[in-house]
């Protein structure tokens, strides 16, 4: 059902959204006696629950507490106290919202940094090299003097990043239950009987990586039985303490792994002393994995019903089936009819969110100017409670919106003709450039909040941006870079800035979502048809170009990245949403071109992020993602040089798609992830140094990297650039690093002749 119609079912939202009483009219109607609907056939599992909750704090209290602690201004005890306060406040709020049955409130979903890292600690899977650190937990998360942190990567297809555990053939697993028992006792002292949530053993091992030095062919999953021993100890410790334990196995929605699932849950469910086990799958359809799980005597399963009703659920008849009908990842109100139909079709015995609410902001309270029809975490909890009261009701189960029609990837002229038309840019061999942003100074950030708060006149703010652009141009000319950038000083964020300048988007005041550790993002909300009321970046790009004779690269964020880092509407297919954004970017490309900008970069760092978890869906996604990028860029004349940029990910998996973007030049993170360049048929700039670290790359080291790249790519197509934008670095670091980069390019260039 479209969102505007959904509205009619709800009591109107109060001024700040604090009056959201979901489905109030429906509840009044259906609660009358004789108004036949199936009540939930609840087993002992609570009728309403959520799989997890945000933990950064409604006002990012944890972020602040962590950063104070890391800066050495507070001790561990103060940090723990903040954690305790945040947990107590969450339980209190959830209880108030209606999660009142024993076991309805989750515990152990709090984390000081990351729940996968917590699971590693819970199993004592702490690599030896961290054990001597002053604080092994934060050393694994963030590194400690001389000790790099563990790797971090994306949690399934979300924008949350987890710490990748390292498992060796000899990792000595054992149960370390203090955190889980501690939270349970803490909640009990406050009067709440909670349900501890643990990351499941199969997901834990499949997300882990083999420790460095492990023999080739070693797979962390080889250690399943040893890990299960530790889970056995944990469950034994929890047996007298909690009625239910939730084991999170989102890996159930990913291909493969049935034998491990079968084995793991037969063993765990067969333990002589254990609480009841709820196995939670999420982020998609677990249908393929359910038979393997059902053969084990686990007591219940939680399934994601937001995209449909999984097959094989009848195998769980007589056990608890927790229906995740309220999306934990999207920000729209739930359609009660659709949700109840799904609960009925699934034979659900309880109602829940589809996944943890970690991925949405806390609350609509305090927001204004947002479109109607939204629900954040608190509002979603109220929906879960209301749906449990209403119960299932048979009806048509809606299918997700289908893309409208076909899209074909539009093309520019052949690359050779473009390269010829671009020759008058006058670039040397191995042209040097940067990825777009220059250091975002504290003054810039302060000016941005001042102008937003009305404390700084707009004209004054814009003058400061221009002054910053002038400085960035001067710096680059002094360094001797070939293709310059304006430095992006006007941008708070590469997606939010565009969202603020496009119709169809809204931005929240306080809608923060944890990205990793203390880092949060405030994803814009794409709620309507997207269009571009006017040029967005042209003014800054042309100002920058007016200051220099060297080419200045216009800088845009690509359509796939804009949708990947936003909450998007759910009433049309993602592909069609992305195409609308692509049209807006295309118009911006045209305006930049018309204003004389000859080089335009359209960034797509999130191309890999949206890759579907299931292999069978990947080719379809990549085809439309490429088509969207090409819709955005294919209007450019041959003489306009189109760049793209990718980072953050194993580009290796999507190399063909990156090539299919057909950009004239692709800059790609390489220094950190050691990416190989051979496959590229056009200009390629494998990053020559890691911008995530304050370390200054040596000139010789860059020379060596360039020589290595030249073994695979002809000099006519090799570009020289860092891994990513420089906004998190200081000017001192940037100057020193780029001087070595430019110096290295000169040395290698000379040796070519
Ligand atoms: C995460 S990719 C960032 C690209 C952007 N142009 C920047 O330099 O900041
Ligand atoms: Zn980047």
Automatic annotation (TrEMBL):
Residues annotated as domain Cobalamin-independent methionine synthase MetE C-terminal/archaeal: 430-746
Pfam family, one: Meth_synt_2
SUPFAM superfamilies tied to this protein: UROD/MetE-like (SSF51726)
Cofactors required: Zn(2+)
Cobalamin-independent methionine synthase MetE N-terminal domain residues: 48-345
Cited CDD domains: CIMS_C_terminal_like, CIMS_N_terminal_like
Associated pathway: Amino-acid biosynthesis; L-methionine biosynthesis via de novo pathway; L-methionine from L-homocysteine (MetE route): step 1/1
Transmembrane segments: none
InterPro entries reported for this sequence: Cbl-indep_Met_Synth_N (IPR013215), Cobalamin-indep_Met_synthase (IPR006276), Met_Synth_C/arc (IPR002629), UROD/MetE-like_sf (IPR038071)
Enzyme class: transferase
Annotated EC: 2.1.1.14
Keywords attached to this entry: Amino-acid biosynthesis, Metal-binding, Methionine biosynthesis, Methyltransferase, Repeat, Transferase, Zinc
Function: Catalyzes the transfer of a methyl group from 5-methyltetrahydrofolate to homocysteine resulting in methionine formation.
Family indicated by similarity: Belongs to the vitamin-B12 independent methionine synthase family.
NCBIfam families found in the cross-reference section: PRK05222.1
Protein name, per record: 5-methyltetrahydropteroyltriglutamate--homocysteine S-methyltransferase
Provenance organism: Dactylosporangium darangshiense
